[in-house]
Design brief:
The protein is α/β, with parallel strands linked by helices. The chain has helices at 7-15, 33-39, 50-53, 70-80, 97-108, 120-126, 156-161, 174-178, 211-219, 237-248, 260-265; strands at residues 4-5, 20-24, 46-47, 87-91, 114-117, 167-170, 195-196, 203-204, 207-208, 229-232, 255-256.
Length: 275
């Protein structure tokens, strides 16, 4: 089953009155999440602050975007009024990065039938569909109870040993993998034994490549299934996008090192490779 939904499909589901929860996860450096939401959002969409609802408290020991406490995710689920009967659609502006984080966190927490709007709000507007402004509507109360562990995760000690038993994928851009550029984290380089395949290489124009093209790119680095695969990025965002791409290609099961390079590089005792 696809992890994505098109703007036309979403519009059709809303028009048909299906039980659907649409969640807006947009954020940018020049405007707050709520600023994006109140300016324009998909009608009936619910507000999500990805810097609060989808991440824990950052620090050197846990990385820039650590896994949130389950109670924080439960608070968001309650606020959005989610139930097991809901189809949940998460969207961002256009590139899928924050929407994929939302997809991963909600699926990890036991929310079923979560999809990402392919192409985000830009795709919705490109179809000529209406948007709404202002604070949005209050949802009906929900009853969904979050439970952790519905997608696999690995921690820093697992990652250190992972190349001995499987494939460890660094999903950052090549220059960061090589250690030639690092604008976000404390040190440059990559985890020993990792192979590089940037998450963005699995997309075209903000949407995933066809499944067969994703599988072909993965096969080039020795990946033919999700088993025995662990993925990391700088802080777990691009890695979540990568894991979703694997699901989209019919290769579920990859583990996410959610602390990512920011957690690994935050420990000066950890070995680092530079090319």
């Amino acid at each position: 089953m696809s992890t994505c939904i098109s703007a036309r499909e979403l519009h059709s589901h809303i028009q048909a009155g299906r039980r659907i929860a649409v969640i807006d996860t947009r954020w940018s450096r020049d405007r707050s999440a709520y600023g994006h939401y109140t300016m324009a959002h998909i009608p009936l969409a619910l507000f999500c602050d990805p810097t609060f609802d989808l991440v824990g408290i950052p620090d050197r020991a846990h990385g820039r975007n650590p896994l949130p406490e389950l109670a924080r995710v439960q608070d968001a689920i309650d606020r959005w009024g989610l139930t097991d009967a809901h189809e949940v659609v998460v969207y961002d502006q256009n590139d899928g990065l924050l929407a994929s984080r939302g997809w991963w966190i909600l699926t990890w927490a036991g929310v079923k039938n979560v999809k990402v709007l392919a192409g985000g709000l830009d795709a919705w507007e490109a179809e000529g569909f209406d948007t709404a402004g202002g604070p949005g509507n209050l949802p009906q109360p929900g009853d969904l109870v979050a439970n952790a562990g519905n997608l696999p995760v690995v921690d820093v000690d697992d990652v250190a040993e992972w190349p001995d038993k499987g494939v460890l994928i660094d999903s950052r851009e090549l220059t960061r993998f090589q250690g030639r550029a690092e604008r976000l984290d404390l040190q440059a380089g990559h985890i020993p034994g990792a192979v590089n395949l940037p998450a963005r290489a699995l997309q075209r124009d903000g949407e995933f490549l066809p499944a067969e093209e994703i599988r072909a790119k993965l096969a080039e680095i020795g990946v033919t299934s999700g088993d025995q695969v662990a993925v990391y990025s700088g802080s777990g965002l691009h890695a979540a996008l990568f894991v979703q791409a694997m699901h989209e290609a019919g290769l579920p099961g990859a583990s996410l090192f959610i602390g990512g390079w920011s957690k690994w590089a935050g420990d000066p005792a950890r070995p680092i490779v530079r090319l």
